[in-house]
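Dear Dr. H.,

I hope your travels went smoothly. While you were away I took the liberty of generating a structure for the chain from your last submission, since the lab meeting agenda had it listed for discussion. I wanted you to have the full record in hand beforehand rather than looking at slides cold. The sequence, exactly as received, is reproduced here:
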Amino acid sequence: MAMIWGWAPLLLAAPFSPQQTTDPVPTAARAAPTSAEGDTQRPPTRRLPVRPSDSAPSAITADTRRTPPPGIIGDWHKIRTRLNERGITVTARYASESAANITGGRKTLFRETGQFDAGALFDLEKVFGLKGGAFQATLTYRRGRNLSDDANLGTLQQVQEVYGRGQTLRLTQFWYEQRIGERFELKLGRTNPGEDFAIFSCHFMNLSFCGAQPGNLVGDYWQNWPVSQWGARLRYEPRDDLYVHGAVYEINPRNLDNDFFIGHFKGATGVLVPAEVGWINNASAGRIGSYKLGGWVATADAADVFLDVNRRPIAITGLAPLERSSRYGVYVNIQQQLTGETKDGKAENGLSVFLNATQADRATSVTDNQVAAGLFYKGLVPAVPGDVLGFGVARTHVNNRVADGQRLDPTRPAVQGSEYAAEVYYSIHPAEWLEMRPNVQFVHHPGGYSEAEDVTIVGLKAAFTL
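The corresponding predicted structure, in token form, is as follows:
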């Protein structure tokens, strides 16, 4: 109740009105989607019109032809509007995630954690006359406490996705992007693979349904938002509804340092090379959809999860693990609108479904696969403009080779298997500058332990545009 009453002044202070937000449904290519205010993995900026918008709801939808959504402190005396007219889009936002465990864990607690981000996107054609050029800089700061740890929930995936990677100030984006002709695009700088590969929204609060799925399984080298890596990506679009792209990112453990830095030039252990092909249904049949298939190879050495240097079980010998020279994986992302209307290449209402599946290599990955599926229904209550109902279920699997090693350990009381998560939320916009998503989560076999008590979470995810 304290959590609910804490939001009451905000609800009463502003009139109810529609809010432009990234829709949790696919968006056709070359359409102008709306802002990503509620996605804590990405800033509420707008991508340049020279680049076709990605179909995933978590894409940074930067359209400098439009002004940013109104913030709680307005247009800053028209400063934002004047900057926008000159090709500079400035955004600032605070995203908050509150949660309390009803069942599960060692004790019942309430925890709030959040992220502040501020960014600037430069349309270099307007600023310098450089056609097809863009530059993005974003700072993020994370704060707060984590319910998964403090209540000892024992989950494989965090129940508050915005927590993690160090409660510190980070340079999350610092990249230059250039359109080359009509079909090619080059991106260079401090970025991360989750911005362009296997991208998915963070409309849910459980990490199982948030961001690029490979980063949820092998986050030691595929580092999602807010961590940045030196990288270069090349994208080719043979048709308006088809693309293929690949990239190279530096793998550097120092990127996880819990302090502020621009970028490290020493300490790299290898490179991450992802590739993806995607097809975007442009609603020619009346429905929006996107289908993506990708994979990756990482060249950094990694420890085998089962074998030692002599290729015998580590659990028996206790020796150092066998070093593997590479790591790899594959993934698929599917989103499809099933019912409802479309307008300007965007789903206006109705039911959409999604499926995300990732498989990492079994030699080096502790959690080796994850599958998440669910639905979004936009316009459930006609009297509530912009409302969205979301529901998802997910399975995160602990590598069978890890479990085999645990069975060989006589001191270990239990063996890990799979963790199952479910979440339902309802998103509303009480004000143009405020988005709220009350949610309920349920985690079965937390940590992959069948003996563990199930976890039930009630939460609230909110985003404030400043």
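Two observations you may find useful: Residues 128 and 392 are 45 Å apart (CA to CA). Residues 2-465 form a domain with the Porin fold (CATH 2.40.160.180).

With kind regards,
E. W.
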